[in-house]
Design a protein that fits this description.
Elements lengths: L2 E2 L19 E2 L1 H17 L26 E6 L4 E6 L10 E4 L2 H18 L4 E6 L5 H13 L4 E4 L4 H10 L3
Parallel strand pairs: 3-6, 6-7
Antiparallel strand pairs: 1-2, 3-4, 4-5
Helix pairs in contact: 2-3
């Protein structure tokens, strides 16, 4: 049984009448505390994991994509990436080094406006992770593509020309 026994403090030189110690039974409070803890543990909802569906390519012949509407993002080291419009052989825009987060988001939005203004079509994004890139950067790139609501995107294998471009920029 839990109880609370206050100590009697002696003060001054005066002698007082002895009183019986005050006794408070805390058993009910302990029971109530455990009931509340049990209640909140059983009724709380835990955070559900959120996942983004990624459609992997279906088996079959490769589908040709227009280089005028394809943006490539090559993931490098040092938490940086290179992006360009077109194909690795002859990019339509100058390959540019960027960081993740707001920087790559602004690049995707700007490129999407440019593609829509010139072709009237939606843009496709190819994310190409290099051997030395970090998994976190791939997830960040996928998040930014999802945030900017790009309808078509894919994770593609990085080409030797892309690796050469990353080496030229110093992020391979």
């Amino acid at each position: 049984m839990a109880e609370l026994n206050p100590t009697s403090g002696k003060s001054g030189g005066r002698h007082r009448v002895k009183r019986a110690p005050l006794r408070v039974d805390l058993t009910a409070m302990v029971d109530l505390a455990f009931l509340l803890i049990t209640f909140f543990m059983l009724t709380t909802s835990l955070t559900k994991p959120r996942e983004m569906p990624v459609a992997m390519p279906a088996p079959g012949p490769p589908v040709a994509v227009s280089e005028n509407t394809t943006m490539s993002i090559c993931l490098g080291t040092k938490h940086q990436a290179v992006y360009y419009l077109g194909m690795a052989d002859k990019p339509l825009t100058t390959p540019t080094v960027t960081g993740y987060g707001v920087q790559i988001r602004n690049a995707i939005l700007e490129m999407r406006k440019k593609v829509f203004a010139s072709t009237g079509k939606t843009m496709m994004v190819l994310i190409k992770p290099a051997e030395h890139s970090v998994y976190e950067n791939l997830v960040d790139a996928l998040d930014e593509v999802n945030i900017t609501k790009v309808p078509t995107y894919a994770i593609a294998q990085i080409l030797p020309k892309d690796i050469d471009m990353l080496k030229q920029k110093g992020i391979y």
